[in-house]
Design brief:
Blueprint lengths: L15 H6 L5 H10 L1 H9 L10 E4 L7 E4 L5 H5 L12 E6 L5 E5 H17 L7 E5 L4 H12 L3 E4 L6 H11 L3 E5 L3 E2 L2 E2 L2 H11 L5 E5 L13 E3 H5 L18 E7 L7 E6 H15 L7 E4 L6 H13 L3 E5 L10 H9 L3 E4 L1 H8 L4 H4 L8 E5 L5 H11 L6 E4 L32 E4 L12 E5 L14 H9 L8 E9 L5 E6 L3 E4 L2 E4 H9 L4 E11 L3 E10 L7 H14 L8 E4 L13 H9 L12
This protein binds adenosine-5'-monophosphate-propyl ester.
């Protein structure tokens, strides 16, 4: 929008070939239709899925903001993702192509995947798993992670996947909040040539949270694990028993029954468990995936995220399976053993669509174009980006070097809370590098000031969503008040959803996301809370208080800077700073490792005792500190 290089302000129009292949040629007319009769639009899309029982009402808004979708309907996402494909040719198609970091390959047809899921559903039932209970999954990126998720959903249990890069405290907190009785994990996974030790972290977490009675471990790395009698079971042992038979019915869940909980960081230290449902989520993810990535039966789709995040839930696992696509999964690091790993995967498997994050693109861009140039990337048809704003330089590199100026980039803006894409192009739309373009069908957005007045084109303001949509999170597990307060209170009068991002809308109606307005920090596209990092720091015996802020970074979008005060008499040192960084890593995970830790005598606070992170950040960046009238002496 405000680039000095005119090349980066260019508008990129779709080629004739893209338009010819596109399902939706004209965004404007379908958008208009979807807004004029939102419920009819969603009912039409819902009819593409198989329902055990049709809904009575598309949208029930009798208890705002606790919207319900397709009430009275019965559906199970697994029936749509697996069961129905067994009845036609999709049964023989590849559902998953998986490549491990060491180079081992496993493939599953829709038939084969279904078989594994049925067997594991029976294992879970034999372990006493009940409809509605929350099962925690903590795994590396192996096919069993997907099998475990699907098996939970099949029997009507609710999965809570904790990203495999998280560590002890993060896992323990999530197990405890969900009161999980069953944990599914693995001995470890491979990352940058090394075996991670997931089971060791899980053992520590189980010591801190006492709810787990059964722990099922997948053997991946072969590293030795501690196995406790009557609690720990090997996945392969259970799957080899007669109880893991191939008869298992898919549970008839209601449209509004919970499908999964996914924890995400917010402004307080405690992560929020967002609740998504079988009905609305199935409809929303499948529809967005079909229109935005124009999924065709012959497509090989690669969402290079981790299934442990919402991107993976919606667009590695559920939407592609519902749409009958072939899913590519890769276990390890993009540059292992060399920076051409991803490009060689695209060539080897003939991938048609790549969907990834700006951080990954910037990371690979740093190694130069020659790594990509030595591979045949001509199978690619579309590209995608998610998780953080993409800078126009990275957009251009992705477009030219990877997409050979043929493949439109779908820059999709959305959140854990939204379940699926909210602001996104479709392939036929003219693109402006760095803009996520326009709202997806059925959605109306606005950029408003603190009073809810729409700001002028080009001005920055709060991004709000003006309507309910089927993929929206229904609540925060065990804390509906927090759900209302966090998302719906600020614009309660208007009934708008507060996204927590600041953004601009230009004269053409294109949206430009700027960043978070709260204390959420986006590092490499991962979402972390300042308060989470601070509470990890104060759990160290030397620290009394801490403040974590985000500083801009060319590669990772943001990095974490921490300012801490120490217990009486202690003095800071470079060695202690390193120790504190490692402590945060041990408690939350490597993604939360601070880039800087500095020591101070006192933190700036308001008179009511709140740490003024804004003041700390402005000082570090050498910016105007702004209004500090609220600052304590
Ligand atoms: O700040 C926005 C940023 O990621 C936040 C949501 O994070 P999370 O719940 O972890 O979900 C990430 C994957 C969907 C948003 O509030 N964000 C996400 N996509 C984009 C983005 N910022 C700019 N452009 C995007 N395409």
């Amino acid at each position: 929008m405000s680039n000095t290089d005119p090349e980066l302000n260019k508008i990129y129009y779709p080629s004739k070939e893209v338009i010819k292949k596109a399902t939706v040629k004209d965004y404007d007319s379908l958008y208009k239709k979807s807004i004029e009769n939102r419920e009819e639009f969603w009912a039409t899309e819902a009819k593409r899925l198989d329902w055990f029982k049709k809904w009575d009402k598309v949208l029930d808004d009798s208890d705002k903001p606790f919207y319900k979708w397709f009430t009275g309907g019965q559906i199970n996402i697994i029936y749509n993702a697996l069961d129905r494909h067994q009845k036609n040719a999709t049964r023989n198609k590849l559902a998953i192509i998986w490549e491990g970091e060491p180079g081992d390959v496993r493939t599953f047809s829709y038939h084969g995947l279904n078989r594994e899921v049925v067997k594991f559903s029976n294992v879970l039932r034999a372990m006493g798993a009940k409809k509605g209970e929350v099962i925690t999954i903590y795994m590396p990126q192996v096919p069993e992670l997907v099998i475990a998720m699907l098996a939970c959903a099949k029997i009507g249990a609710v999965h809570s996947v904790v990203y495999g890069g998280y560590s002890v405290e993060a896992l323990a907190e999530r197990i405890e909040d969900a009161k999980s009785r069953i944990l599914i994990t693995a001995d470890g996974g491979f990352r940058r040539g090394k075996a991670t030790k997931l089971k060791t972290i899980a053992d520590e977490a189980m010591k801190r949270s006492a709810t787990i009675e059964v722990c099922i471990t997948v053997k991946r790395t072969g590293e030795e694990c501690y196995m406790e009698n009557d609690r720990d079971f090997w996945y392969h042992d259970l799957m080899g028993m007669p109880l893991a038979n191939t008869n298992c019915c898919t549970e008839k869940t209601n449209a509004e029954d919970p499908l999964f909980i996914l924890y995400t960081s917010g402004t307080t230290g405690k992560p929020k468990g967002l609740v998504h449902t079988h009905g609305g989520y199935s409809v929303y993810t499948a529809t967005t995936h079909r229109y935005v990535f124009d999924i065709k039966a012959e497509d090989r789709w690669w969402c290079a995220a981790d299934p442990g995040w919402i991107t993976g839930h919606s667009y590695i696992v559920y939407a592609p399976l519902i749409n009958g696509a072939t899913i590519m999964m890769y276990e390890g690091a993009p540059n292992h053993p060399y920076p051409n790993r991803w490009w060689s995967i695209i060539e080897k498997y003939g991938i048609n669509i790549l969907y990834t994050s700006p951080t990954a693109i910037r990371g690979l861009m740093r190694f130069g174009s020659s790594w990509a140039d030595r591979h045949d990337l001509s199978s690619l048809r579309l590209l995608g980006s998610v998780g953080e704003p993409i800078n126009p330089e990275a957009w251009k590199w992705y477009y030219e070097v990877i997409g050979k100026s043929r493949c439109p980039i779908m820059d999709t803006w959305w959140q854990t809370e939204t379940g699926g894409f909210m602001i996104t192009p479709i392939p036929t739309m003219p693109l402006k590098p760095g803009s996520a373009t326009k709202p997806f069908f059925g959605n109306e957005m606005a950029i408003v000031d603190d009073h809810g007045v729409e700001v002028k084109a080009g001005e920055e303001g709060n991004l709000v969503i003006k309507n309910p949509w089927p993929g929206m999170a229904r609540t925060i597990l065990g804390d509906p008040d927090r759900y209302v307060e966090k998302y719906w209170e600020k614009y309660a009068k208007q009934g708008w959803y507060l996204a927590g991002d600041s953004a601009r809308k230009d004269e053409d109606g294109y949206y430009w996301i700027i960043g978070r307005i709260d204390d959420v920090i986006k590092v490499s596209g991962y979402r972390l809370g300042s308060a989470e990092i601070e509470s990890a720091l104060v759990s160290h015996p030397m620290v009394t208080e801490a403040a974590a802020v985000a500083l801009p970074d060319d590669l990772r979008g943001n990095i974490i800077h921490c300012t801490v005060t120490l217990r009486n008499g202690a003095t800071g040192s470079p060695a202690l700073a390193e120790e504190l960084k490692t402590h945060v890593e041990k408690e939350i995970g490597p993604i939360a490792r601070p880039a800087f830790v500095e020591f101070t005598e006192a933190l700036p606070k308001t008179r009511s005792g709140k740490i003024m992170r804004r003041v700390i950040k402005a000082r570090i960046l050498g910016q105007d500190i702004g209004d500090i009238s609220g600052l304590e002496e």
